Structures are given as structure tokens and as C-alpha cells.
Amino acid sequence: MPAQVEFDTIPEMVLRLCDRYRGRERPVLRHKVRGDGWQEITWEGFQDRVQALAGYLHRQSVREGDRVALLSENRPEWAVSDLGTQLIGAANVSIYTSLPPSKVAHILRDSGAKVCIVSVPVQRKKIEEIADTCPELEEVIVMSETADDPPVPMTHWDDALAAGREHWSEHEAELTGIAESIAPGDTSALIYTSGTTGQPKGVVLTHRNFCSNVKGALRRIPIGEDDHHLSFLPLSHAFERTAGHTAVLAAGATISYAESIEAVSQNLQEVQPTLMISVPRMFEKVYKRVTKQAKEGGPLKQALFDWAVGVGERHAEAQQKTGSGPNLLLRGQRAVAHRLVFSKLHEKLGGNLRFAASGGAALPEEIGTFFQAAGVTIIEGYGLTETAPVLTINPLDAPRYGTVGHVMPGVTVAIQPLEENEPAGAVSGSDYPTSLSTPEGEILVKGPNVMKEYWNQPEETRAAFGPDGWYHTGDVGRFEEGYLKITDRIKHMIVTEGGKNVYPGPIEETFKTKNWINQIVVVGEGRPFLAALVVPDFDALRMRARDEGIDESTCDDAELLHHDAAQALFQDVFTAYNRDAAAHEKIRNFRLLGEPFTVEEGTLTPTLKLRRSVIRERHADLIDEMYEEFGR
Predict the structure, then answer these.
(1) Residue 525 C-beta-side C-alpha neighbours within 13 Å
(2) Which InterPro entries match (predicted)?
(3) Are 308 and 337 in contact (CB under 8 A)?
(4) What confidence score (pLDDT) does residue 31 get?
(5) Which residues are bridge partners to 91 per DSSP?
(6) What are 86-119's pLDDT values in tens digits?
(7) pLDDT in tens, 49-58
(8) Which of 190, 139, 187 is nearest to 163 (CA)?
(9) If pLDDT is split at 50, 70 and 90, which confidence band does 160 have?
């Protein structure tokens, strides 16, 4: 569906949407207030807040091209801050709330932000701790209580909006003129990459980058005025910012903000969204829980579950491949399967979901196929922060799991074989659908969604683009009948002692659906074979221990990991994998870890990607031990 209004900049989009919905009492944002339930903000109320925030920033001498940092969880104030900043031509610098003070300080200094808007006290305290190291920071706007003796001037959110309303009223013509003068090539935001290695880089994204991507996405993803999105992925992430924020607004739909990640399950049932945007991790957890319950229910329940999944798969296949759709018998079986097996899953997702979108990492094919069989179609896409971010998306009526779909409108993607200098097999979004298949190689991109530059890093910017203007993604993939399939990141490639090139990502994905495994990292650079570091799913492991007659209540996690039965269980998992794996992709040894990889301890990025170099360094002794066992 197209956007509800025509626009080429974010301020143009916001002002035209507010004009369209003025007086219609349509909710645009919803949030939960403790003791008062879900509260709605109409488009008129939203416009009032956005203009008030813009007025205050202008009053405080924030001008076109300046940067305003935003350190906040998903909430209405995030949207107001983002759009109010852009309404006067400044750029939003959104910061993950999971970052430690040192990383926040780096982003504030690097971006040169004049103002920082913060949410809760724990985030405000980060700014207090680092304010002296950020000389260009002039003011902090605080959504909660301000500090008693702050190291930098602090203003409460409510006071800022009150002063901003007055300033907007007094200077409305001037401020409206600024909003209307913003050009598509002007900077909209600086989004800092997660930084799997080194310090994060600021990606400069323009209004053209975001607007072209949103309009292209809405031509492929059917979001309309009656849709409702529950937002819980961090809005600092380009995926949620474009797909779950800007695109939903452009469609005239409603956004509800989850109270927290922990409350998502409850909020889904309260909000009953029609669409959901998530990362694969959430779908993996739901899949494991559902399959685990079926197994624990005994042979009869497991057989019923398997029958229902089979019916769902045949029903989905018939919908895609035959003109007449599923026959009467299959439709009847599908209704029974839904009533007996899948209805509870739909209820847990709110009971109103039309489809879900997945991005940020690879969605295992098995999980996508299962959800489609259950009547919840997941459309997986692919993109990068540097491409604002969506490059490809699976079609809702013909998703192909294991791929990331077709190229977006306005975007051109090419594959450059790793041993060659010229791109081959370029696919434009205007060619959709296409039957092109290509060899494997690096994914190259051109289009209006590709970033302007890396902030203050001209050498990094030049290195990212080829001499012919292609942006080099660093990802490896190929086209299969017009669907793009991602293999891995070039920099993740393992070169074994024998000179074999191995991409660990696809190998790790094969283990994501195994009940005993929570996280896994494959290692083997310069080694004679591959090995793995594994974080078990301790709940599943303890349940298995009870089944084996082990009194797991007397064991802590470390003792359980070293139990012979636990070691044998994981050895069986790898033995089963190795039967069908190529010789150079077999995993010949492993170690179980007692603590998960997390953002807080530095082994995951804020977008939950593995920091492989950190993990290898932290567990170097264990890795060496695995090879020493084989005399290597």
C-alpha cells in the first residue's frame, strides 16, 4: 500500500500527515501508564508535542545541521524527540540505552551533540558521569526527575515543552519556513553502528535515504491505516526506526510501545497488534517453547502436533503454487489443526496478527516454515544501517524461507564473485519478480537509500564504495531464482590450517532450533578443524537431567555442564550434525559455557550480534584446550 501522503523529507511527511488526520481523533501513539492502562495520543496531540519540542530546541539555539542526541527506551517521547529535532533541520543521534557510559561519551563527543534528551534516572546518571568529557554538550532534557547539582544544565521535559509551545507560537512562520526548506539531501540522522570490532562509526543518513526506503517498503509490505504495531525493538536500531516507526507513521497506522522486553508477551495480548516487527531470537524462543511443550505432552500430543504442522505446510504450499488454492479437504484439516493446536499460539501473539517481519539476523528456515504452517507468515528482509536499512524483503504471498526475498523498489543489488573485480548479476527492484540465479560473491548495492558517508571518517567512507559507486556491504550471498540468499559476512570467514574457507554463520544457524542450545560460536581460524563454544539452554538441560534420573537440584550450572550425561547429550547433537556435513565443516570438539554471551559483558553488540574477536580472546584457553586434546 502506498504512503498516505506524498513526501520527500521527514518534516514534510509529519506535517502532511497531521493535516490529513486533523480533527479525526485517530490515535497515532499508545503507551501504558501505571494504574491508568493504555493511553492514546491523537495526531493533533502528537503535532502539538512535536512542534513544542522543535520550538524549545530552536529557542535554545539548535539550528540546521546541529546534532541532538537521544538516549531513551521506546516511548512516545522518543518519537516526539526524533521528529521535533528534524522539524528544525537538526539531526537525531539515537543511542542504545544498553551502552555503558564510556560508549555513550564516545558518541556524544564524536557527533558533537549540543543537546541530549534522556529518559529514566539510570540513563541520566550516565550523562552526569561523562558530561565533563563532552565539551560540546550544552544542555540535557530529562523525561524523569532532574539531578540536584548537575554538571551540565538540565531541563525537565514538561518545562521544555511548555517553553517550546510559547516559542513556536511566537515564531510559527519562521519555524514552519525552516521545516519546509529542508531538502532531501540534508542529514536526517546519525546512527552509530554496533561496532563488532573497534569503536562504532556514525552513519550519516539523509531524508532521501529514509524517505525512499519507507516508500519502497510500503509498496511491498501491506501496512494501512487500520494496522497496529507493538514496538519493542530498540528505536536506535535502523530496522525498527524505518520499519516500525517511520513506515508505520507514513501508513497512517498506530504504534503502541511495549513497557519493556520482559512485558512483550503480556503487551501482545493487551494490544492485539495486526503486525509485529522482531528479530529472529524472539521467534526462535517461541518455536522452542512450543515444540518443547508438544514433546513433554507425550506421544499422542506429539503426533497431533506433527500432523498439524504437516497440514499447515501443505496448506501454505497449496496457497502459493495452485491457482485455485487449497482444496476443501485441506481447508477443513487446516481448520481442525488451528483449533486443536495453533489457536493458543495465535492467542499468545494477540490473536489479531496479519503477519510478522523479521530482520537484523538470519531467520532459520525451519522456524519460518513452522510459523507459516501455524498460520503466522513471517516476511524476512535484509539490510544494513548504511542502507537505511532495507535492501530486500520476502513477498507476503510467496515467502521463501532460507532467503531474504526480492530486491526493494529503487534499489539495485549485484553479486561480485570474491575472486573478481567486476560485479555480476545486478538486480533492480523494478525488475521484481526475477528468475535470476548467480554464483556466490560479495553483495554490492546502489540506490537512493545508501548512506551519504561515515561521520568524520573520509577514509572509511572511500573504502566502503568502489570506484564505480557500488557500496560494498561486506556480506556474501547469491541470487536463487530472484530471491537473495545470505551466506555470511566476509570478515567472519574462517580459513582453516588446510586452506579451506568456511563461513560459520550458516553452521551456527543449524543449531539454533536445537532444544539444548541457547548460543553457539564456531571457531577454527588457522586450525586443523572446526570447534564450538556452546551456551546451553539450562532449563531444557535440567529437564533432560531429571529424565535421566539425575538429581539436578543438587547441581549448580557448572557442575551440570561437566556431568557425563550432559557431555554425552551435546556430543550426540554434534555427531548427528557431522554425519551430513562436509569434511571441512565438521565440528570435532566443543566446550560448554556456564554464562551466556550478553551486551553487558561485551560479547554481544546492542543489536545482539556476536563480537567474535572478543569471545575468542576471552575464551582463548578453552579454545587452545580443545585443539590440544587432539595433539594440535
Answers:
(1) 10
(2) AMP-binding_CS, AMP-dep_synth/lig_dom, ANL_N_sf
(3) yes
(4) 97
(5) 67
(6) 999 999 999 999 888 999 999 999 999 999 999 9
(7) 999 999 999 9
(8) 139
(9) very high
Q: What are the tens digits of pLDDT across the range 325-372?
A: 889 999 999 999 999 999 999 999 999 999 999 998 889 899 999 999
* Integer CA distances (angstroms), 152 to 59, 142, 493, 501, in order: 18, 12, 46, 52
Kindly list the distances between the CA atom of residue 421 and the CA atoms of 92, 417, 442, 485, in Å, as whole numbers in the listed order.
Answer: 37, 8, 10, 21
What CA–CA distance (Å, rounded) separates 403 from 199?
Answer: 31
pLDDT at site 515: 80
Position 615, amino acid? I
The closest of 190, 218, 404 to 413, measured between CA atoms, is 404
- From its phi and psi, is residue 82 left (phi > 0), alpha (psi between -120 and 50) or beta? alpha
Beta bridge pairs of residue 380: 358
- Tell me if 595 sits within 8 A of 603, measured CB to CB: no
Q: What does the pLDDT average to over 215-231?
A: 96
Please give the pLDDT value at position 361.
82
pLDDT category of residue 195 using cuts at 50, 70 and 90: low
Q: Where is 189: in which H helix or E strand?
A: strand 187-192
User: Whole-angstrom distance between the N-terminal and C-terminal Cα of the chain?
Assistant: 59
The torsion angle over the Cα atoms of residues 599, 217, 366 and 483, rounded to 10 degrees, is -120
Q: What are phi and psi of 150, to 5 degrees?
A: -75, 150
The three three-digit cell numbers of residue 540, written as one number = 531444557
* pTM (2 d.p.): 0.86
Q: Output the CA–CA distances (angstroms, integers) from residue 606 to 100, 191, 609, in the order listed.
A: 11, 13, 7
Beta strands (DSSP E) in 503-577 are 517-523, 530-536
Burial of 349 (0-12, 13-18, 19+ CB in 10 A): buried
Catalogue all structural domains in the chain, each as residue range(s) with its CATH number: 10-182+221-267 (3.40.50.12780), 280-351+353-490 (3.40.50.12780), 493-628 (3.30.300.30)
Closest CA to 534 of 610, 585, 475, 607: 610
- Give the separation between CA 38 and CA 267, rounded to whole angstroms: 10
Three-state DSSP at 58 gives: helix
- The band of 241, judged by pLDDT with boundaries at 50, 70 and 90, is very high
Residue 145, beta-bridge partner list: none
In three-state secondary structure terms, 608 is coil
* Grid cell of 397 as nine digits: 504471498
CA atoms of 94 and 116, how far apart (whole Å)? 10
Q: Quick: pLDDT tens for 545-584.
A: 777 666 666 666 777 888 888 888 899 999 999 998 888 8
DSSP letter at 97 equals T
Is the preceding peptide bond at 504 cis, omega within 30 degrees of 0?
Answer: no
Q: In what order do the strands lie in the sheet with 37-42?
A: 37-42, 27-33, 254-257, 228-231, 275-278, 355-358, 378-383, 390-393, 406-407
Q: What is the pLDDT of residue 549?
A: 65
